Amino acid sequence: MTTETTSTPDPNTNPAPSPSPSPTPIPNPSSLIHPRREPFEHGLLPIPKLIFPDPTPTLIQLKQQLSTHNRVNSSLLAESLQISTDHARLILDTLASVLHSDSDPLVKARPDEVDSAGADLRDLILFLYIQSYKKLLPRTHKDAASVADVWPSTSAFDGYLSALSPLQLVRSNNRRFMPSQADEEAHQLSYLQKHMANILALLAEPVEGEGEGEGEGEESLVLSMEGFEHLGFLLHFGDKGSEVVTLSQAAPFFANSDPDMPAIPAPATQVHDWISQNISSALEHITERISAKENGPANSSDSDVAMTDACTSSIKTPPSARGSCFIEGISKSSFVKQPSDLKGSSSVKVLNCHDSILYILAPLRYATIYGCSDATIVLGAVGKAVRIEHCERVHVITAAKRVCIANCRECVFFLGVNQRPLIVGDNHKLQVAPYNTFYSELEEHMADVGIDTTINRWDETLALGVVDPHDSLSHPAGVSDFQAEPAARVDPDQFTNFLIPNWFGAESPGSTKDNPFQLPEAYMASQQRNQKNLGETKKLLREAPLEENQKRELSSALHLLFKDWLYASGNVRQLYCLQGD
């Protein structure tokens, strides 16, 4: 039986602060509690067997079943959950990408060491629990009647949304109506508040000396400081970039513990009350901020980043995003960002960019590409996870630990990736190819974030189901599921290198001189043939027995054809923008 109550807010609606008595307001926003966004943005897997109708008793049973194992490997997990070993390994890899502690053995493990490292049982239980999370639906417009005739129906009977292309789906939900960062944070906090009693029950232990018979409830459970720290997977205090404050340091239960003595466990009810009060305070603060934004003038520093076509003003670092940079609304331009331009941000979100070429040449932890079309996007080195969603005719070039592709169409991905690329949702005509570029600081950036250049699993894609149980907008209830369309390999004869201009010239600070990932034999042979053909063509042109006027005519014809190709392919825009830089 679960310990939930029905008085808590519904996390699948725009949440409001709990009506329960709130604590003394905390005036300093940096001392407010926040959800960790990474598990909710990069940690949800559309695997039906992970979506438990009532997760608490299922996970309590799993915890008891695995209680003799401090750490869990993929074979043990597959046996316990009755899932394939591929899915079990996917769970461990995904968990590693969103864990809150970089010192955890699972995070530090090389790909061939993941099973020997295993996952901490408590982190694994929390990860499995949040698979029940539902993403926030778009907000209702203030004047709902005025937009009712253009707002798409989510009926499961007409199948309208599933018939839309990924980009049409994004555009049908106008950006003004999509959830803001503040709305999503409030939704995640509300979910955690509603489920916190169950989460604590999974982390807590019975009071020593008491039996485990019938009648024992939450009152008899206590939480150790170590168990409490595992809540750091879901919650943290203060804005990222400020001094790190662990949950046990912020909580009154363990603040004065003697470091030389084991901390006294805290009653689970006391921990629940303290967390609920802090979440209520945070929700009140978010509600006030949203209300002030909606009723006041637009502010460029709001968590909703304004759309713009200007390169120089299209990158924002909203305070509420805590460590994320938004690059939004780039259109018909080239856009270049180096590490110094990102102002210390560890993650980037590229949103609604079209007909452009974007270079984000920096070491990152997380990256999201959403709602883009007819663009080429180069991401430097991403050490945790990349998610590409609702894109059309986009080329993505990235070196990353992990890549997830969702609801995309006619896109090509040039990958240097250490884990199997994950394909989920309604995808069509996707292609994958080996990594095809470099820039001077690439190897330094990959070393910074822990990408192994000796491992590239670019063509070992793992396709899951089309229906995402966490997203009721893209796939309404009642839609039957089937495996996502797999990606095809780019034909080696169609594979080309992508040249990143060297803006620093001879003063380039890095040492990378070539693609650090070894090309597969077929692609290497194709490149060698192309180089040989190019050399032979140049030789024929040089040695052709032509008069001077014929050479000029030939040169003019070649230049004209090249110019036609530049305009037809759209690459002329890149040349103009780079000249402007």
UniProtKB/TrEMBL annotation:
Record flagged with keyword Ubl conjugation: no
Annotated Pfam families: TBCC
Top-level taxonomic group: Eukaryota
InterPro entries documented for this protein: C-CAP_CF_C-like (IPR017901), CAP/MinC_C (IPR016098), CARP_motif (IPR006599), TBCC1 (IPR039589), Tubulin-bd_cofactor_C_dom (IPR012945)
Bilayer-crossing regions: none
Pro residues: bias regions: 12-28
Annotated compartments: Cytoplasm, Cytoskeleton, Microtubule organizing center, Centrosome; Cytoplasm, Cytoskeleton, Spindle pole
Keyword Cytoplasm found: yes
GO cellular component, one term: spindle pole
Assigned keywords, A-Z: Cytoplasm, Cytoskeleton
Matches recorded under PANTHER family: TBCC DOMAIN-CONTAINING PROTEIN 1
Family the entry assigns: Belongs to the TBCC family.
Protein name stated in the entry: TBCC domain-containing protein 1
Taxonomy of the source species: Eukaryota, Viridiplantae, Streptophyta, Embryophyta, Tracheophyta
